[in-house]
Amino acid sequence: MERLCGPELPFWVANQTFHTDRPDLPKCFQLTVLSWLPCIYLWVVFPIYLFYLKKKNKGYIMMSIMNRFKTVFGLLLWIVCWTDLFYTFHELRQGQTQPPIYFVTPLVLGMTMLLATFLIQFERLRGVQSSGILFIFWFLSVLCAIVPFRSKILEASQNDVTDKLRFTTFYFYFILVVCELILCCFNEKPPLFSNVVTDPNPCPENTAGFLSTMTFWWFTSMAIKGYKMPLQTKDLWSLNQRDSSKVTVPKLLKEWKDEQVKAKSEQNQSSQAVYSKPPPPTTNHTGGGGGGGGGGESSPEEVEVLLSNQKAASHQPSFLRALIRAFGPYFLIGSAFKLLQDVITFVNPQLLRMLISFTKQKDAPDWWGYSLAFLMFFTAFLQTLILHQHFQYCFVTGMNVRTAVIGAIYRKALVITNAAKRSSTVGEVVNLMSVDAQRFMDLTTFLNMLWSAPLQIMLALYFLWQNLGPSVMAGVAVMVMLIPFNAVIAMKTRAYQVEQMQYKDSRIKLMNEILNGIKVLKLYAWENSFKEKVLNIRQKELNVLRKTAYLGALSTMAWTSAPFLVALTSFAVYVSVDENNILDAEKAFVSLSLFNILRFPLNMLPQVISSIVQASVSLKRIQAFLSHDELDPNSVDRKNTAAEFSVTVVNGKFTWSKEDPAVLHNINVLVPQGSLLAVVGLVGCGKSSLLSALLGEVEKLEGEVSIRGSVAYVPQQAWIQNATLRDNILFGKLYNEQKYRCVLEACALTPDLEVLPGGDMTEIGEKGINLSGGQRQRVSLARALYSDTDVYLLDDPLSAVDAHVAKHIFDNLIGPEGVLKGKTRILVTHGISFLPQVDNIIVMVEGRVSEMGSYQELLKQNGAFAEFIRNYALEDIVEEEEATEELIEDDELFPDDALSNHADMVDKEPVINEAKRNFIRQISIISADGENPRSRSVRRHGCSQRKHSDQQEKKKPNEMQKLIQAETTETGRVKTKVYLEYAKAVGLGLSVFICFLYGCQSAASIGANIWLSQWTNDALTNQTQENVHVRVGVYAALGIAQGLLVMVSSFTLAMGNIGAARKLHYNLLTNKFHSPQSFFDTTPIGRLINRFSKDIYVIDEALPSTVFMFLSTFFVSLSTMIVIISSTPIFAVVIAPLAFIYIFVQVCCCWLTACCAGPTVCCGQPSSHTATCFRGSCELRRPSSRAPRLGGY
User: Fold this and answer.
1) Which portions of the chain have biased composition (kind: Basic and acidic residues) (predicted)?
2) Which of 208, 246, 427, 879 could form a disulfide with 218, with the two C-beta atoms 3.0–4.6 Å apart?
3) Do 252 and 403 form a contact (C-beta atoms < 8 A)?
4) What is the pLDDT of residue 1024?
5) How far apart are CA 416 and CA 630, in angstroms?
């Protein structure tokens, strides 16, 4: 530095800087370090920031007044800096030689100011509203300019100013830099054509400045609003675009698909390397994972193929890699903040060392102490800011991971094969979405501790080595001994976790079956029997949970005792190995601060490992589910361009699962465009399977299937959503009044609208609970008709409706004169009365097409069709006779006799012989003489087109009562009653005893610290060697007592929590079994399942850890205040205002947490939504259908 500054300007003068009451930094130091530091920062980050700006173009910001001021001030700073430079040249020409630093520093500062001005404009062109890079630069510039600012004032007060130009330019420089810093605190306007401008309620985080983002000031308005009034969903800001499900879910699915393709290519390469003849594909499913798409079966003698299959099985797609690629980059930003925070953490112990050293030096200047205290505060403040930025990134990543995983599971649930559905029930899918996805979110928060904890441990040990020397290795030995102990606990916890999830799946599966069949359970009074079954599974689950809790208590004891044991062994060895080693206050308390830093990573590392173990179990479960085979969308050729046939099946052979035998053999079907084909046969002969084969729902072993145009499907059991009647019919399509009315008339739904309380806006309960079976089937028909497709597959839709309604639907909708004439229709039916009007008939016998032809041709053959007629004619005519009697009594609908209509249809066929007619007449006589065994459920006001009215249009919306009420949550602060209820569930006596144990644990901790303080005082009286054994022994006894109390309190707390979990689940289960049927009719099953899955999970696992953390934090804080007040009573004055501020902030946060408890409620919505869509996945997979989006949740 002497070359730059010259001999007259020394770089460092200790007496001028430290050992004086008026400290100041040398001029050379000010001109070099303080001037260059901001410049070096900006030039280092400039290339990286420029690359980032080129990649992230958010749009163009119009030049505002503030931007003009920033630019002008930047140019003025450049002029001011180079004024000094040119003035130095002027002095050189005048013969006044200045050191080189007067040339270098103005030149560097001027170029840096030009760079800063360039960045101001370039950021504007790239849509940056607030620049963190420039804010840090201006902040550093102001910070480094404060020292010269003070120095020049001191110089001017003591002597006359000799260099007036540089004195003046510096103050111009200082004022301009302060102005730039102030302007940098404000935001620019949003870029042109920005999404933020069009959003009615945008999240202010997107437009928040750097300072607001770092301090979370943008959230203040929401906190104030939540304090004033309970927050509702409408009060919340819109979700950031990057965090929405429409962005996160496709991102994860893309990476998962790439992973599947990669695994499949590796599998094919390994297979071809061993055996070059790959087996041909034989099924119509696509491999959901690496092992699922591995081709056909191999003969036993082909050993090479078997070996290749074994090798290929190892190439499984990794869901973990897909998660890392999708969300890893964003998560790494949080990891960078964590690294910075870890480094800053170790600054405070060094400052503490200096502060203790300062107290020993009586002649030290007072400003040392003030400076050290300020630096400790500033370090803690900076550490807090950085730590919470890390948590923000981790929380957002966890939320995105959970959203994406739920979306991936939802998408997969709609496309898995029937074989996969056997192993993956609705209960398991709901569990994957509620529990397993939540585990990923919980893990992400502290995942960085996996590398941060070892880093902190190593840094702490390094500084401890500097403080205590080799004695610290005794503490390292203790830590190494604890590693296998924690490893054994982690392995056992993993095994218990797998077992617990199996029991949880079984319980949720059973609960799903119970809730789906609750009406039958109540009718047969089977509640107690099924309650016992659920409680038996729950008991097994709690037994595993108890074992896990006991292992957790041992782990808690280990990590609580670990820092103390490390400190004890280190101190004991330190004072024992050498008589000259004196444990004074500096060594003891600096070491203790390092041991306290060591406590957190030692605490968190086992918990993170345990969370990783739990998440690995969930990862395998989710990966196994996502690797299930999917239905191949290309198994049915939808690009059929043949003009003659709409549906073609050639040599078809189909099975429901590749492990099962074929259900359909040698199927050959040709359906002409616009024809009506009836499929008939005995029960179980394969009629529904044939329609499933046309839909691609079953696996194709052989043959070709092609369908031209779009397809609508009406299943045998109607699938109804929890929505209005109109929404169930429209199913996402635009509303057309004329078309809609025509659909209602054709499906005989118009009279029903007069009965329903809200007309077509009446809310339909889950699974159509408030509709009759016939109404549900007609709504399903109306949905298919409104979709206006080319091909209609109707799976016996007339079986659920009354005979006269069936005739109306056939005549007006399905038949040759119905609305669907000209469309291709394939109708599965048992009603023989409609068969004469169809174009062709297929007769199914044991999975094969026995006969095919027109009605006349099949009657002539006297084969399987004739047998079908004999089996179903009696039932068909009995139904029509009942309908006829009801119609004659009512005399409103269908005045023509249904049986005569049936006879008329028969008369139209001249080839029907007289014996057939006599057979029908005989059946008519028998049915007329016998008593009618059926309930007469003919709808008296069924489907008359003459009595159409617009009554449903006159109903006002406010008159309608909502069937499914929106789920609500308690708002405001959590009531004391809630805490008392949980305490009662734990047991009041046990709760008091647990608090007593935690109090004793804190007392032991206080005693150990007080004893250590007395130990360090021995150094002042030269009694260090006299009381070593007593000091070590008592310190060890207090520490061991603390560890034992921790273990006992953890065991007791675990027992209390498990007892509370048992009671709360039992009360919930008993309450639901005692609820009336109306409750289940108006409550979605997903909402109830969510109570038994997610909320019970919270009670079982999340709540105990929260209670543990509360008790630990409360007693640690209480003991800390007691120790401080006992040593420094004046601190009691500060406690009151600090406590007020702390409680106020806590109350605000608690209210916000309670108000924003929506996730608990909303978690039931995807569960209910998924359960509904899982049941209706067959309809949702149709090309004309639109799967309801999960993104709204």
Assistant:
1) 947-958
2) 208
3) no
4) 52
5) 4
* Residue-level pLDDT at 642: 61
Instruction: For the chain, list the domains and their CATH numbers.
Output: 1-191 (no CATH), 645-883 (3.40.50.300), 978-1160 (1.20.1560.10)
Residue (of 108, 84, 88) closest to 98 by Cα position: 88
Helices (H), 762-893: 773-787, 803-809, 855-861, 864-890
C-alpha–C-alpha distance, residues 95 and 91, integer Å: 6
The CA distance from 785 to 764, in Å, is: 19
Written as one letter, the residue type at 743 is V
Tokens representing residue 883 in the block: 């309908």
Listed in sequence order, the residues at least 6 apart from 774 whose beta carbon sits closer than 8 Å to its beta carbon are 800, 801, 802, 805, 939
Dihedral sign of CA atoms 915, 917, 923, 925 in order: negative
Q: Which residues contact 43 (CB under 8 A, 6 or more apart)?
A: 112, 115
* Beta strands per DSSP E along 433-499: none
Dihedral angle sign, alpha carbons of residues 669, 675, 680, 684 = positive
Q: 915 is written with which tokens?
A: 């014996």
Question: Reduced to 3 states, what is the DSSP secondary structure of residue 434?
Answer: helix
472/465 Cα distance (integer angstroms) = 6
User: Quick one: which H or E segment has residue 1053?
Assistant: helix 1028-1074
**What pLDDT, on the 0 to 100 scale, is given for residue 1006?**
83
| Gap between the Cα atoms of 54 and 684, Å rounded | 66
Which tokens hold the place of 702? 């052989």
Joined tokens for residue 653: 């052979």
Q: What is the Cα–Cα distance from 311 to 289, expressed in whole angstroms?
A: 15
Q: How far apart are CA 222 and CA 230, in angstroms?
A: 11
| Residue count (the chain) | 1193
Task: Give the model's pLDDT for residue 716.
Answer: 84
- Reported as a pLDDT band with limits 50, 70 and 90, residue 1192 is very low
The pTM for the full model equals 0.72
Separation between Cα atoms, residue 412 and residue 431, nearest integer Å: 14
Instruction: Report how far residue 755's alpha carbon sits from residue 238's, in angstroms, rounded to the nearest whole number.
Output: 40
* Diameter over CA atoms, the chain: 137
Burial class, 784, CB count within 10 angstroms (exposed 0-12 / middle 13-18 / buried 19+): buried
CA distance 352 to 343: 16
For the record, the structure tokens of 532 come out as: 């016992």
Alpha helices in 126-158 (DSSP H): 132-158
Q: In the prediction, which pLDDT does 1184 show?
A: 47
Proportion of the chain in helix, strand, coil states, percent, rounded to 5: 70, 5, 25
Strands in 791-795's sheet, in edge-to-edge order, are: 711-714, 791-795, 824-828, 676-681, 840-845, 848-853
CA distance 425 to 418: 11
Phi-psi region of 6 (alpha: psi -120 to 50; beta: other; left: phi over 0): left
Q: Which of 687, 680, 715 is nearest to 871 (CA)?
A: 680
> DSSP alpha helices (H): ranges in 189-318?
195-198, 210-215, 220-228, 245-274, 303-313
> What's the one-letter identity of residue 1183?
P
Residue with tokens 């499913």: 285
